[in-house]
Structure formats: C-alpha cells, structure tokens
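Dear support,

We are seeing what looks like truncated structure output for some complexes. This example has two components. We would appreciate it if you could run it in full and send us the complete token output so we can diff it against ours.
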Amino acid sequence: MHPVAGTADRAVETASSRLRRKIELVNGPFALACTTLFRHPRLAELWPEYAIQTHWIIRATVPLMEDAETRARASADDSVAAGVAAFLAAHIERERGHDEWLLEDLELLGVERSAVLARVPSATVASLVGSHYYRIRHCHPVALLGYIAVMEGDPPSPELIDRLVAGSGYPRAAFQAFAAHGELDLHHRAELYDAIDGLPLAPAHERLMGLAAMTTVELLTRWLEEIVEEAA
Amino acid sequence: MNSTEGSPSSEIKKLADMISDPGQRKAFADEPEKTATNAGIDVGRLPDEVRSTLFDLSHEELGVLARVKESLDQAGVSREDAAKIF
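Here is the complete output from our reference environment:
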C-alpha cells in the first residue's frame, strides 16, 4: 500500500504540534515587536523599563502555576487535570526564584528592588496574567499550558544576548535572567511538549489551550509596543 | 490578470479577509469547509497545514487571529506580509 501525500505528516501530528502551529499563526507581529525593541537605537533607555515590566510578569509565574495545580488536584476523576497537576508540581520548582534573578539584574542596572515593587503594573500586564487566573478557575487548568508554551517557546539565543549587551552598553552580568532562560527554556519546552502529548486531551481542551496561547501572544505584543511607544 | 489568482497565497488572503468579517467568522467556525467554499475559496489549494490548523480553530481563536490581522492592517503592514501570518 502506498501512502497518500500528507498522510505521514498527519500520522505524527500531536497536540503540541497543533498548539505550536496556532502560536505561529499570530507570532509575526510579536516577532516584529521584539525586533523593534531589541534593536531600538535607545535600547539603553528602554531596557530597564522592559526588565521592570518583565518582572511584573515573571513574579506571577509560580503563583499562577500553584493556583492551577491546586485547581487541577481538586478536580476528581479528571485525568487531564491529574496530568496537568503532575507536570506543574515539577515545573513550579524549575521556575521558582526566577523573579529574584530579574531583581538582581535590575540592581546592576541601578534600579532598586523597592522601586520595582512600588510600581503599579499596567492594565496590559494585568490582563496578560489575570486572564489565566480566570481560565484556570472558571474553565480548566489545562489552559495554563498554552501560556507556558508561549513563555518558554522561543528562548533568547546567545547571539541575541550578545546583541543586547553591545546595543545597551550594560554589563553582561545584568542579563543573568535573560541568558539563563535561553538555556533552561530549551529543556523546559521539551518537557512541556512531552507533558501535553501525554495528556488524554479532548478537542475542547486543545481549543482552550490554543486560545490561552494565542491571547498570550496578542497581549505580549501589545505590551512590547506600549513600552516602545511610551518611551517615544 | 493577476498572476497569483488561484494560487495558495491568494486563497489564504481570501480566507484572511473572510475571517475579518464577524458574521463570516462565526459561520466559518461552525462549518469551515462549507463557509470557505461559499466565499469562493478553493480549499483544495490551501496548504494542508494551513487548512488543518485554520479549520480546527474555535470562534474565539479565530477572533484573536482577526484582531492580529486588523492591527497589522492598521499599522500599515502590507497585505502581502499580513497574509504571511497565516
């Protein structure tokens, strides 16, 4: 029997590959916003603000996952929720303390942690993070895997770190959090995809994860655009 | 005659325009193949990957996609480049 064209691709299609394709659908504007910021002629001025606002997002990572894990464990007789809880239990420990790295980086940039913590996050950041609390609590905790897929899906390369150091003039040590994510997220991403592909997902679960992921990309794009616009 | 007429990229553009319309978007989410065909899109010319991904999106996911396309249009990104997001 001869395979029909395209059959082989469909045979290896997985939930994680479908999720990645949904992210790719909306990723173009996000990539453009990243490029605009990272190659900005006033990068030295923009970078501390970017790092401060990144801290607003990153400090919510572990609390979000803890909330999702709690909700998932409370869902009796839900094998998807059980799988999500098992993944998150391990992933929480992998992500713990990363917000502290950013505060340390900011101190090297001359920004005191008290100043970072005193700032009120933007509505866009609150929407970005807050929408996941809603989906975790009122839809299904599997939604958070869509968020994690975006946040860890495209880690910064060593070349980008070099470019940022050169473009900003800041010491390499001030990019500790960014550089560490470049290394760690490659492993985390693989672990996440394995976890997603190991779940007995229904189409509704995949659509919820897809919506969470696509909305995350949309809001991250808006967030980056706002940082550049407000510096103009 | 437009040399791209009937090509995969022209069909993708038509699909992108269709999704921009709220009524069409809802119909597409419910019955993707029928709605696309009724809109004059030759679904057989869509790349398999594009077709399987877009035809599987929920109404809400299509809404995000439409907003992204609209923001690109407002930012003055060319229709050629905007179509690439699909």
